[in-house]
């Protein structure tokens, strides 16, 4: 039995009982308007191979949320958007639910109170985590992509077969393409190109930059390469433009400059505990250092995770199902207590997110025969409900009805990050 546990601080909470029909009986009234609502409930999957799911029946809408196959323990069901929870009913399919649980309500942050800065470690991270959010706040959103994502292990992985004949040429071309993706795809959502930047630092080297900020670290396969190669579309000059060097000090100076230019009230960055990718952790660390050096602290920091230590293929289930908090097993965090925000995506916004993914070259993977057969078996034989809009797994896991974030105040983020270091 594994319980998903988090260091959450809710605005309100109450005990909940499920009656024989699955209807929620609350010990006190909680109004779900402008709130993120999560129900903690013990559940058990009935199959080791097939994911169970829970149909969430609201008064005007129905959602479905999936749980892992073969697992048992406390899980968190996303009831956001149901204003009258007394009219909510849960229906378990291929799983069983406990009759008692706890409802947690979190006041949604006011994201309209100022600029929103999204820090994306690589091209496509902003889209995976927050395409719906930045689409709904396009006039306020700034997107800063830190790395060009140029790393290429073999010529067989280049986007156009046979286009380049040397690995060095292919690395440069991949970086050019992904840098362009990072500043062109957000325009589909209406983000002004004057608020889109690619900093051009090198893929899989950000943790080294932050750990040794005063050292210049050349590119492992193209030593003459500098970040300036991937900055040609940036709308404003940055500290590392004039004499471009690949160093942590220059990275931190760039982010500091952008903080002072934008003065965001909200910053989105990868969660340094939930997301284990070294580049992703390094971007959170670089943000904290830039905040420390600039003295500018945003009101809040929203945290997302595109890679996970636990929970393969999360969020679970087919496209358009509900998402919840990523798997985690600790009620303590270096950042203190977390709040939670679930941003809703209607069906049209989810379709637009599919188009955004399709515009990203790195999400256009070629499937091995084995995986194509598994998809055919699941869709045609098992009728598993997946649409398979694209070949990359992100087309399934991240096209969901919600984008879910943990968040803390800017002060708490800075304190937690700097005390740890």
Structural class call reads alpha/beta
Helix-strand pattern: EEEEEEEEEHEHEHHEHEEHHHEH
**Overall 3D form:** globular
Across the major sheet, the strand order is: 11-10-9-12-13-15-14
Architecture blueprint of SSEs:
Layout: E1 12-18, E2 24-26, E3 35-45, E4 53-57, E5 62-66, E6 72-78, E7 89-93, E8 95-107, E9 116-120, H1 125-136, E10 141-147, H2 167-184, E11 196-201, H3 206-211, H4 248-262, E12 266-270, H5 278-294, E13 300-304, E14 339-344, H6 347-358, H7 369-381, H8 394-397, E15 402-409, H9 410-420
Helix pairs in contact: 1-6, 4-5, 5-9
Task: Explain what the structure shows.
The radius of gyration is 22 Å and the shape is globular. The chain has helices at residues 125-136, 167-184, 206-211, 248-262, 278-294, 347-358, 369-381, 394-397, 410-420; strands spanning 12-18, 24-26, 35-45, 53-57, 62-66, 72-78, 89-93, 95-107, 116-120, 141-147, 196-201, 266-270, 300-304, 339-344, 402-409. The chain has 421 residues and is of the alpha/beta class. The strands form three sheets. It has a seven-stranded mixed sheet with strand order 11-10-9-12-13-15-14, sandwiched between helices. The protein has a five-stranded antiparallel sheet with strand order 2-1-8-3-6, with no helix packed on it. The longest helix is centred in the middle third of the chain and has 18 residues, at 167-184. Helix 1 (125-136) packs antiparallel against helix 6, helix 4 crosses helix 5 and helix 5 packs across helix 9 (410-420).
